[in-house]
Amino acid sequence: MPRNAYEVVTDIEERAVLVGIDRPRADGWTLEDDLAELTRLVDTAGATVVGVITQRLDRPNPRTFIGTGKAEEVETLARAERATVVIFDDDLTPSQQANLEGLFPDIRVIDRTQLILDIFALHAESHEGKLQVELARLEYVLPRLRGMWGHLEAERLGGGRGARFGAGESQLETDRRLTRRRIADLRKELKHVARARETQRAARGGSGVFRIALVGYTNAGKSTLLNALTGAGVLAQDQLFATLDATTRRLDLPDGRAVTLTDTVGFINKLPHGLVEAFKSTLDEVREADLLLHVVDASHPNRDSQMGAVKVVLEEIQAASRPQLVVYNKADLLPTLERERLAQSPGAVVVAAAEREGLDTLLDRIATIAAQTDVPITVTIPYDRGELVRLAHEQGHILSEEHLAEGTRLTVVASEAVRGRLSEFLPPVERTPAEWEL
Ligand SMILES: Nc1nc2c(ncn2[C@@H]2O[C@H](COP(=O)(O)OP(=O)(O)OP(=O)(O)O)[C@@H](O)[C@H]2O)c(=O)[nH]1
Ligand SMILES: [Mg+2]
Hints:
By secondary structure, this protein is of the alpha/beta class. The chain contains 16 helices and 13 strands. The radius of gyration is 27 Å and the shape is elongated. The site of guanosine-5'-triphosphate (GTP) has 25 residues, from helix 8.
């Protein structure tokens, strides 16, 4: 069977050897954290970790990433453990990957990014999700295509002898051309598919309904929280990247206001850039939300680093400036003292979504935040336009009401849509000096 980067890692019973590099880090993650997370990813992909090799290294070897001696050690361990795949925690360049596969040709060599792409491929359900994943995978594969002459190409890329291989080159060029064409087609189709959802989203945005997006590290409990708050019934399980598709549900707040709540794909440390790009349209929901609920697995030993990683992704998708409420979840797994300490932190609430604990406090906080964004308007509605007074009563929140000679004077907090209907009865705008100059 030809070995290529399209293969899903779980096609056969995979036995994996992990390779991690111990190097100076500034982001709060340790080698052990990284390897524990990589093990979780391997688990989620349905494979088994049969060995781990680490190396202290300040700078990766440009040819083989790890040193040559270390590569031999990897091979020895992999053979002893009958491993089918070697997984590097760090990104390999296409030539490093090719060179390593050249060293042990019957064992696949992949990196963390490819493993994450494989998991996404396994979990993609919707048509759009599948297209997004295929796009990300092909973008990843394109520079790694080696055609049927992979070993020769590998040597060339690795700076070995030889420059061009006639037949191999042309086969490779065909593969590349086909892949590029498929990428272009996928982009086009994705645009088309995204348009329908775009229209719904625009309608929700235009209606002035307050929009909330759940964001957070993968497995933090976002889907569990959506289910607990809205009875959405989406998949929630102890797996990384269980959710890929965005789901939006209506949520009724204690003050009677209806808002929308959207659950979407989780983030991870070093989330492959290609995936962020491919999921752009899904993540628009996050970028345009009025409030982000940042769901955190408060019981996770890497809680703070995970929060940092979420911040990095939010920055990457230009959503870091959205208003945020931190939701420390899985409080049932915390010692009481820690729970109380977290509850004191400003801009945060503590819940246990799976136990339905703390949800009332959370809803009150959301209601308060949503209400802060309201700007009341005062309108005087003539008595022959009673339907607008009714509209204000039904869909707005009336702060005061007076019956004057010229009509009903209302001060009301309402959605943009309702404000629009009432706007013709706003008092004439008092213009500021700056506006006079225009
Ligand atoms: N103990 C405990 N477990 C919880 C709680 N909330 C969620 N979980 C568990 O955490 C795991 C992940 O929950 P999900 O809701 O799927 O997490 P997610 O953030 O949607 O994860 P992805 O979609 O994979 O990114 C599941 O096994 C849940 O049962 C909680 O309050 N307490
Ligand atoms: Mg989920």
